[in-house]
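Ticket #4471: structure output looks truncated?

Reporter: J.K.
Steps to reproduce: submitted the chain below (107 residues) through the standard prediction queue, then opened the result file.
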Amino acid sequence: MIKETIRDQYYDNILLELGEMSRLQGRLSEHHATVSSLSVDQSFNRQGIGTKLFNHFKKKVIESGVAIITIEVFKDNERALQFWMKHGFCNPEETDRDHISLELTLL
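Returned output as attached by the reporter:
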């Protein structure tokens, strides 16, 4: 079961947790959503937990009427890049020498 915590009166800072060591943190504003971090305990990798957490976050974003989710990842983190691109993120853009920003359009 996913535990959901929403904080902040102006921006929804969302924390989703599945078990003790797997979580997604994101931010949802009036026009935009951002995934701040996604971490899954190594002993549970490749079991769909990251996808489950992201799908829950995406559902919240869609329900709020927001059309775009962005994420920033380290350029050399191939596993993260593959994960996010598998989930429809595209338009990679360098934000600095170490990071790439990706975007998912929902509506």
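Triage note (M.O.): checked the attachment and the full token line is present. Residues 49-64 form the longest helix (16 residues).
Status: closed, working as intended.
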